[in-house]
Every structure is written in C-alpha cells, then in structure tokens.
Design brief:
Layout: H1 11-19, H2 23-39, H3 43-70, E1 99-100, E2 103-104, E3 106-110, H4 117-130, E4 135-139, H5 140-152, H6 156-163, E5 168-174, H7 181-194, E6 199-204, H8 218-230, E7 232-236, H9 242-250
Parallel strand pairs: 3-6, 3-7, 4-5, 5-6
Antiparallel strand pairs: 1-2
Helix pairs in contact: 2-3, 3-4, 5-6, 5-7, 7-8
C-alpha cells in the first residue's frame, strides 16, 4: 500500500515560510512532521533536520549560480587538479587560495598543446566553485576584447573591477595570438590590478622566457610576469597531446607525428 500523503501545513505557516524564503523547509515540513511524530523525535532533532535541509538546498542553489556565472566552456574534474588546498565552505579568507603573507597565489600552467593545461584550469575552477568561491573564465582573446570595449567608452577601470569580483579569474590560451601595444598594455593593467588582490589561473603554450613572442614590448612582458609569478604555483606540462593520442586510437593508428 502507498502511504497516505502528509497533510499540508496550515496556510498561515506556509505563507510565513514562503515570506522568509525558506523554500526547502516549506517543502519538506509536512512529511518531516509526520516522521517526527511517528518516530518521536525530540524538538532539537526536528529543528536541526529542517535547518540542515535548508542549508543544503541553499548551498546547491548558490553553487549552480556560481557555476553559471563562471562561464566555464565545459565541466572537467580531476582528483589532483591543483596543489592548492580547498577548504569546506565558510573557511575562505586565510586558507584558499593559499596565502603567502598577504597575497593569494596564482596558478600558472605552461606546456605544449593538448597536455592538460586547460583541463587543469577548468578542474581548478570547478573545485573552487564547489568550495564556495566565485570564479570567472575566459580565453585571453576574450579578456582583451572585453578590455578593448571598456577602452572605447573609457570604462576599463570598471570593467576590471567587475572581473575582479571573482575570487579566481581564469585566463586560458594566453599567447595563442599576438597582441598589439594597446592589447598588451590592457593585459598588463588587468594583471597589475589583480596583483595581491585576487588569484589568477592562466595557461599558455609558451614558456615564460618566450612571452616576448606575443607581447610586443620587452618591458611590458617583464613587468607583467614579475607580478604574475611573484606569488604563484607553476605547473609545466609536457609530452604528447592527449587529443592526438585519442585520435590515433580512434583511427586505428593512421595519424602519425611529423
């Protein structure tokens, strides 16, 4: 037999819970009241169960909101995506991102195409979101384009401040395309504004000593790297592209390296 439906809450109590925006408590209370009476829960146990349910629902909702705002291109996870310690919610300011004195550490991944740089950045972003942090993802081209739009209406400062509302700002594909003088200066301005304020996650196929390939001014490259690497974890990836390995597997080994 199917158990009878739990009686609804009194209208005034239902309205009060909705007014207080306690949606999970409002939804679960009818059945939990029946369970509490049947199993003779004490009042503290009943109240704790309701509060835990409401907190869990809000955490899940907030995580979905942060995930959407992060604009990650895909969802990647890794059991060892980063050496940064990620605490549970509520222990943010001095534990993660790992602090060196008064500054959060950046995460810099460099290496050939297809060796896991973007995967590690995205996995880092997912882990940060799960831990309660705000994340923002873009490619370097998208970031510079956004800054250029701010330059057009003299709002670059506001654009950068908006980007830095996130705890972790991820910039992928740095150096994929060369920048002109203005683009390089805008990128430097962004990194300088984030310096010792926010954690940056970046990925580039170019070793740091070759960033002059896409930054036209040597002094700009040096100044940018000086701030980026001062408090940072550097991960160097190497080996053959995972995508090429997978492609050879799928085509029976018909793709060869030149």
């Amino acid at each position: 037999m199917t158990a009878p439906a739990a009686p609804p809450l009194p209208a005034d109590l239902d309205a009060a819970l909705r007014r207080l925006k306690l949606a999970a408590i409002c939804r679960l209370s009818p059945e939990l009241l029946v369970t509490a009476r049947t199993q003779r829960w004490n009042p503290e146990e009943f109240l704790r169960t309701l509060i835990d349910a409401e907190l869990a629902a809000r955490d899940e909702s907030n995580a979905r909101t942060r995930m959407k705002a992060a604009a990650l291109p895909v969802i990647k996870r890794s059991r060892s995506s980063t050496s940064w310690p990620l605490p549970s919610r509520g222990r943010r300011s001095t534990t993660w991102p790992r602090w060196n004195g008064s500054a959060p550490e950046n995460y810099c991944a460099v290496g050939p195409a297809g060796t896991g740089k973007s995967h590690s950045l995205i996995a880092l972003g997912v882990a940060a979101i799960s831990a309660g942090y705000k994340v923002r993802y873009s490619t370097a081209a998208e970031l510079v384009e956004t800054l250029y739009r701010g330059l057009a209406d003299n709002s670059v400062g506001r654009v950068i401040d908006n980007l830095l509302r996130a705890d972790l700002v991820i910039t992928d594909e740095v150096g994929f395309a060369s920048l002109d003088d203005t683009g390089a200066q805008l990128l430097f301005r962004f990194v300088a504004a984030a310096y010792e304020r926010r954690a940056l996650g970046i990925a580039s196929r170019w070793p740091f000593d070759q960033w002059g390939r896409f930054l036209p001014e040597h002094t700009t490259a040096v100044s940018l790297l000086d701030r980026l690497l001062h408090h940072s974890i550097v991960v160097v990836t190497e080996g053959e592209s995972f995508r090429m390995k997978q492609a050879r597997t799928q085509t029976g080994g018909c793709i060869t390296k030149k």
